[in-house]
Amino acid sequence: MKSMSAISRNLALKLALNLALGFLGVLWLTGASDAAEVRVMISGGLTAAYKALVPEFEKATGNKVLTEYGPSMGTTANAIPVRLERGEPADVLIMVGYALADLTSKGKVVAGSQVDLTKSPIGIAVKSGAPKPDISSVEAVKRALLAAKTIAYSDSASGVYVSTEMFDKLGIADVMKDKARKIPATPVGEIVAHGEAELGFQQISELKPVKGIDIIGPLPAELQKITIFSAGIATGSKEPEAGRALIKFLASPAAREAIMSSGMEPIPAAGAN
Length: 273
Description:
Number of strands: 11
Low-confidence stretches: 1-17, 26-32
Radius of gyration: 20 Å
Structural class: alpha/beta
Strand content: 15-25%
Distance between the termini: 45 Å
Number of helices: 11
Helix content: 40-55%
């Protein structure tokens, strides 16, 4: 039986090999010349994996990635559509797939450049050390929601689903009006960690980086809503080829380990446009 250290070394070697293969593809695409500054706007779902992968992309290509963070939708000042509307520059947009498609229809994203990167399930969290309610079935989730005094959900894709579809599906929409609230911009996990909500709903990949919470688990299959996160080239990009190289890298096997570790499922690349 292999020791834990041997297993760890094997995993490290496997990751290093995957990264090396990914780098070779990126270097081929960019020609490894004339370093560029790639401006990225990204929403929360893919952030943890993205932060782990970008330094490797920069090291492999010599390009510099400049990043702005914000929700895929909504009217807060840092929301990606709002940033674009006020003329902030961007080369790559990484966000909820249907929100990216909407920006494409409005001429903000280059048609045909969208690449689906990951699938992201919704999870439920409580403050660290707090009792973990049963969420193993539809009825169990309903009981947990009715028993909780305060509930928080995001202002992005997961929260839109929870507040406009899931509560109705459970037949408790009227009850939730008094104790469930939408959290703009701030990660829901932080609200739960501070004790401002007993239960928090958000993509698991956005809950995992937050300290001070326990993730109970994903919603049961009958209630689950999988969000697709996608990347595309912004209209007016000054570095579209470098942007495509970054998207290609994020969609490559080299990114798989980081994406899975963040609580998401990679979508096999069909080839970046």
